[in-house]
Structure formats: C-alpha cells, structure tokens
Amino acid sequence: QSSLSNSMDSNSETSSRNYNLAQDPSELFDLYPAPPSVSRYNSIITSDWGKSYFPSPKSTGKVKERGRVHVDGDWHRSVQVWIVQADSQRDEIRVLLQRRSPYKDTHPNLLDVSCAGHANAGDGVLDSAIRELEEELGGNDMIQGQFSLEDVERSKAFIVTSAIEGETEKYGKFICREYQDVFILWWKGNTPMNTELFAPLVQEEVSGFEIMDGRELIKRMRQNSEELVPRSIEYVEALAKAIGCEE
Prior knowledge:
The chain is an alpha+beta fold. It has helices at about 1-20, 65-70, 125-135, 140-145, 150-155, 215-220, 235-245, and strands at about 30, 65, 75-85, 95-100, 110, 115-120, 155-170, 170-185, 205-215. Helices cover about 30% and strands about 30% of the residues. A hairpin with a 6-residue loop joins strand 3 and strand 4 (about 95-100). The chain starts with a helix and ends with a helix. The relative contact order is 0.19.
C-alpha cells in the first residue's frame, strides 16, 4: 500500500509539474480596455475604432496574474504566428499547425496556429512573437536560420479581438479575452516544409505538429471543426485573405 501511495504521489507531482511547465499561472499580463462595444468583441481592429485602439491598442497601465486574468475575463494581449508555404504560383498553400499540449489552461489537445503566446507585462508585441517562435518551434534550431527580425516585423497582418469562454478538467471555467496580433510568415526557399523541422524547447507546451492544405484549413475553420481552436468568422476571413485562400 505504501508503494502504491508513493506512486500516486509521484504521479500527482509529475502532473502538477507538467501543468506548471505548460504555463506559469503567476506570470503577469498587461491589461487593456474592453473594445468600444460588445458587438466588437470578435472583430478586426480598424481606424474607425479611434486612437486608443488603432493602429495598436493602448494598455490601462495595470497588470494581473495569468491565473486571475482567465478567471476574471480581463482583456490582454497575445501574438499568433502562422507559418505558410506556397508554390511559385501560389496554387498550393501549406500551413503549419501545432497541437496544443494537454496541460494548457485553454483549449488543450486542439490544433492551433503554428505558434502563439501571451505578451507578458512590459513586453512588446514583436519581442513576444520572436520569443514564441523560438520557444514553440525552435527546439531544432531551424527558426534562427529561417526568419530574420525584419521578416517577423514585416509579417504583421492584422489585430483581432477574441472573446471565448470554455472549461477544462484541470482549471475549470475560463474566460479568455484577447487582442490578438496576427503574423503571417512565408516559408523561404524551395525546400518542403515538414513537421520534423520543428520542436518546442519545452515539451509540455506543444504536443506535436501537422501540416494542412490552406484551403482545407479555412474550410474547417469556417465549419467550426471541433479539432481546431475556435475562431470568429472575422478572424477566419482575414486569415483566408492574407494567405490567398478566400475561395
């Protein structure tokens, strides 16, 4: 019985460690004001939003721990980077997807954008995007040679608001309200993009990678596939336009 108890304790400690590696509930996020109206909770930010939001939302100056932000439903900032490969005529579009870790506090186990993460308090959006590229994709040292700082800076496509509620077995109910800065990075050269080129620095953050045809991805996103992290139709159509998969 003692051996069984020790084994259960060990498994519990390992599980807790894995959850903490997947995200730090004590990390601090800058807080942002809510969009001008509820009707803009899942919308692309445009110039008519005003200077407080366009071209980039301005924070309130307050910070809060991640664990509380997803309980209280505070607006915060995240970055999302799509890695896309196209042939010379852009007839064939291939998109890298990651499968989220089972230890994530939102949308565990679902297929998601190539890499993504929150902007920590005081961090700029560009710095956050580069950090996430290295942390979630750069375990095989591929990212360092593939994209430059200028590539990432020029790849900014749009900012979208996202308000999603859900529930996980570990963390219970969550309210995730984000200003999402979306980047589109086009794969360089003629070498085929394949999943073996990518690996997370921390295994608990990402379960694996898949490559999907761009038009098939947009089709599934429009259909709200249960295998994909949900996105608003505004997000999906903006992404479709950015990667040339509008039809």
